[in-house]
Design a protein that fits this description.
By secondary structure, the protein is of the alpha/beta class. The chain has 2 domains: about 1-25 and about 265-275 and about 330-450, Enolpyruvate transferase domain (UDP-n-acetylglucosamine1-carboxyvinyl-transferase, Chain, Alpha-beta prism); about 30-260, UDP-n-acetylglucosamine1-carboxyvinyl-transferase, Chain. The protein has helices at about 30-40, 55-65, 85-90, 120-130, 155-160, 195-205, 225-235, 270-275, 300-305, 340-350, 370-380, 410-420, 440-445, and strands at about 1-5, 10, 20, 45-50, 70-75, 100-105, 110-115, 135-140, 165-170, 170-180, 185-190, 215, 240-245, 250, 260-265, 285-290, 310-315, 320-325, 330-335, 355-360, 385-390, 390-395, 405, 425-430. The strands form 6 sheets. It has a 4-stranded mixed sheet with strand order 1-2-24-23, covered by helices on one side. A 4-stranded mixed sheet has the order 3-16-18-17, covered by helices on one side. The longest helix is centred in the middle third of the chain and has 13 residues, at about 225-235.
């Protein structure tokens, strides 16, 4: 069970085999992309299973402030997941964490003078930079202290190449934009080594630019699967994308037009907190609503789970992982799936040999410096870890000590280190509500692990 004391939550280890079937809320990455693209759609449509979280709320609120006509109602999963009726009843008896959002059909023409607060939502800040020039007005994009420390200069410089009137604060937010309602588009050169979100930002709105957009990436692109996700979403709304080996990406001018409702897949990054449990304690976990046809690149993490010794089954409808809690240590490049580094780091605590994670420098400019944060907390547990400029090595120990885990206002620190508490006695997660960034109801889902179970 979980015990909450003020802003802390205490995890109780599970000592017996568990077999659980569940789903998770909609993908944050898909939600914020689809909200933006659907707002440009020529027809009003419904977006189903829209995630309710801090990041998606910032995007929704921004679109409302800008004058888009948005209608919202609760979305029930009952009809979508008959296989896990028990879980849906367990969750929906407590709350509803999905929405149906009706949006599209009209782009506001009124002149606005707005300051839009994006919190620490990187997708909201970055995606709006390329979107706002399509409207009319003077806009300021700002956020929390950490957001003002996260670089934006590569994106604003690219937009300047398109003659967008945009300025930043020496390469960081806040960002100011003077918009006249249209962007000529054309060719830009941009770095891809800090964040693929810069490229996705240009792509999402680029189909509305008069001449489309031709994006030349001057170095190595990180997190390529997220650019693939952006491409697939755009194509599902009728916008053609051409990708030449991630060196040149072209988005043609076109009409954003989708006739059908859009279902937002469960968030795979968040699903993997549960699907990784069999690598930590003997268990079998099934996640429904996402599978082999997913547009989320984090599906690559399944191969890592296989490599460390878990059994994996996947269909179009579900993913099942089973394991004995005895993972193998590996050496892996996680440049494509950096959001899962914290998860693998926790698994690595229990491996049969060291786990080395490479080529993830961009973790240092996320919600916190994630490489340093992971190393700090593993050390507090009594673990051994080597910190590199672009990665780390976890050296497993026979025993760990009870610890209060600092979360650095980073949702992924809280969720990943909660998994350690399933095996290590006395794990407390500080500031546990920071999961609200992408998964506000995480702890209720986590509680389901203990349901009808004598741990």
């Amino acid at each position: 069970m979980l015990e909450k004391i003020e802003n802390k939550i205490i995890i109780k280890p599970i000592r017996k085999y568990i077999n659980k079937s569940l789903t998770v809320p909609g993908s944050k990455s898909i939600t914020n992309r689809v909200l933006l693209v659907a707002s440009l759609n020529n027809k009003r449509i419904n977006l189903n299973n829209v995630l309710v979280s801090d990041d998606t709320t910032y995007m929704l609120n921004a679109l409302k402030e800008l004058g888009f006509d948005i209608k919202i109602q609760n979305y029930s999963k009952k009809n979508d997941f008959p296989e896990i009726k028990e879980f849906i009843e367990f969750i929906e008896s407590k709350f509803n964490d999905g929405l149906t959002v009706s949006i599209g059909g009209r782009i506001p023409q009124e002149y606005k003078n707005l300051t839009i607060f994006t919190g620490n939502s990187g997708t909201t800040m970055r995606f709006l930079c390329s979107f706002l020039p399509l409207l009319r007005g003077e806009f300021t994009l700002d956020g929390e202290k950490r957001m003002r420390e996260r670089p934006i200069g590569d994106l604003t410089n690219a937009l300047k190449q398109l003659n967008v009137n945009i300025t930043d604060n020496n390469g960081f937010p806040p960002v100011k934009i003077k918009a006249n309602g249209e962007v000529d588009g054309g060719s830009v050169k941009i770095s891809g080594k800090i964040s693929s979100q810069y490229i996705s930002s240009l792509m999402l709105s680029g189909g509305k630019y008069k001449n489309g957009i031709n994006i030349e990436i001057v170095d190595e692109l990180v997190s390529k699967p997220f650019v693939d996700m952006t491409s697939k979403i755009l194509e599902s709304f009728g916008i053609k994308v051409e990708n030449s080996e991630y060196k040149v990406i072209k988005v043609n001018n076109g009409t954003y037009l989708r006739e059908d409702d859009y279902f937002i897949e469960p968030d795979l990054t968040n699903a993997f907190y549960f699907l990784s449990i069999p690598a930590i304690i003997p268990s079998k976990i099934s996640i429904y609503g996402v599978g082999k046809n997913t547009i989320q690149g984090d599906i690559e993490f399944l191969e890592i789970l296989k490599e460390i010794g878990c059994k994996v089954e996947i269909s179009e409808r579900y993913i099942i992982v089973e394991g004995d809690g005895c993972p193998k240590g590996i050496d892996v490049d996680m440049n494509n799936i950096p959001d899962l580094v914290q998860t693998l780091s926790v698994i690595g605590l229990f491996a049969d040999k060291p786990t080395t994670i490479r080529n993830v420098y961009n973790l240092r400019v996320k919600e916190t410096d994630r490489i340093k944060a992971i190393c700090n907390e593993i050390t507090k547990l009594g673990g051994k870890v080597e910190e590199y400029n672009d990665g780390l090595k976890i050296i497993p120990q026979k025993e760990y000590k009870p610890t209060s885990i600092s979360t650095y206002n980073d949702h992924r620190m809280a969720m990943s280190f909660s998994l350690a508490g399933l095996r290590i006695e006395g794990i407390t997660i500080e500031d546990y509500k920071c999961t609200s960034k992408t998964f506000p109801t995480y702890w209720d889902y986590f509680e389901f692990l203990y349901e009808n179970h004598l741990y």
